Amino acid sequence: PLAALNDPSLLKTDALINGEWVAGGSRFTVTDPATGLPLAEVANLGPEAAHHAIMAAHKAWPAWRAKTAKERAAILMKWFHLLHAHADDLARIMTAEQGKPLAEAKGEVGYGASFLEWFAEESKRVYGETIPTTDNNKRYLVIKQPIGVCAAITPWNFPIAMITRKVAPALAAGCPVVIKPAEATPLSALAVAELAQRAGMPAGVLNILTADGANSIEVGKVLCSSDVVRHLSFTGSTEVGRILAAQCAPTVKKLSLELGGNAPFIVFDDADIDSAVEGAMVSKYRNAGQTCVCANRFYVQDGVYDTFVEKLAAKAGALKVGNGFEAGVTTGPLIEDEAVAKVEAHVADALAKGATLVTGGQRLGDRFYTPTVLSHVTADMLCAREETFGPVAPIFRFSTEAEAIEAANATEFGLAAYFYSRDIGRIFRVGEALESGMVGVNTGLISTAEVPFGGVKQSGLGREGSHHGMDDYIEVKYLCLGDI
Ligand code: ADP
Q: Gene Ontology cellular component (predicted)?
């Protein structure tokens, strides 16, 4: 699938340290999840290279922070335009290594690029403060400064956007970055890095350490334990987030964590059912159910339960499963064999405990799974507690608003939540009562660069995107001027 790139030089397989492509001593294989075939052999770097990258970033910092915000913004904007100019190739690379349908991949390129534009703009608005004095002999000022070298460890489900969402605010604020992309999707990361080079990113300001699963753990330890690295941003599982937070404790590193979710999707009797079904489709089945904001648990009120199940099953059953490069395919493969095993385990557990299979429930080939709807799901089933991360919609039944809120909040996660209602009072009550960082009301699609993305409870720390997205990369400094 990669033979057809318009610009074959976007296919990079070496890592990027200090503006140079580094082959490393060994390689690891990146495979196409749709076919299982190898795509490329990528540089497999370890702890030593991680130290080099950190030192390169450290050396690049003074010149990068000394640039004016406008100068840094100009480079980010050039990078933004290059992502758009090469959107077709970037999408092909992404579909090849990640599996999502080509149209979805192209959508992600635009979404990923939007963070570069947004933070290029925001970089010019990192305002300080003057505080009215309480002593006529003194003046109080607050200035904002870049935090320092930043590290980012990113997942495979959004191979480009999860990089730009972290890296754009860091760079905009004046911080150099070291990125460790997911081992399943390094080619998208490297292509984006190549475009950063073309945009004029100075050497050492943006470094990419590619590594296989085992080396990722070692590289992670170096990034966390370094006292040069002042901030770590991670998107991935809660389990790995906890490990990284512990590893960062000795150096009291600032952390941004975007971890697992277990999003409830509530449909009240007064909802517009067709709209709710539409929202459920995008929220649940996008990226084959592999997003951290995917609806994971559907709670549907008695009066509309049967209608909702029937309508959702009809639409889910009409999705086309296949290789993301084939026209009309809406559901690509899952990322790896274990992902399919988890989906199968959740479905088997639900069926064993009395759920009904309404549609789907079938593994196709190695990594494909048919979009599935389960009804009569109950709280004792695995899918009620754990994130399935696959194309399965388990539908629970409820009677009262209080019951729905209690069930929705009965999880250690708190990333996204969704609900459908046309009652304005209920919209406020439920919107305020849900324990999550983001709530979609009468919509299943909430992400955009302008809004704060992030979770509460064990779904994470900090917010990405929006004007809040810059905060984690900035230190607030108070200057007290005396002898006035
Ligand atoms: P996912 O559930 O998305 O696969 P993971 O949390 O397993 O998420 O991985 C997300 C990222 O974290 C990847 O880049 C992966 O290489 C990295 N990673 C996984 N385990 C560790 C670890 N122990 N230390 C550092 N990085 C890790």
A: cytosol
Report the alpha-carbon distance of residue 223 to residue 231 in Å, rounded: 9
- Interface ipTM: 0.97
Catalytic pick among 97, 117, 183, 258 = 258
Task: Give the rounded distance of the alpha carbon of 174 from its chain centre.
Answer: 22
Instruction: Report the chain's mean pLDDT, rounded to a whole number.
Output: 98
Identity of the residue numbered 463: R
472 lines ligand 1 (CB under 6 A): no
How far out from the chain centre does Cα 404 lie? 27
- CA nearest ligand 1 atom 5, residue: 236
Neighbour-count burial of 74, counting CB atoms closer than 10 A to its CB (0-12 exposed, 13-18 middle, 19+ buried)? middle
475: nearest Cα among 157, 109, 179, 65: 65
For ligand 1, mutation pick of 30, 42, 97, 153 (most atoms within 8 Å of CB): 153
CA angle 358, 364, 366 (to 5 degrees): 140
Residue 106 clears pLDDT 90, i.e. is over it: yes
Q: Contact at 8 Å (CB) between 196 and 94?
A: no
Residue 341: CB partners within 8 Å, gap ≥ 6?
Answer: none
pLDDT band at 75 (very low <50, low <70, confident <90, very high): very high
DSSP annotation of 333: -
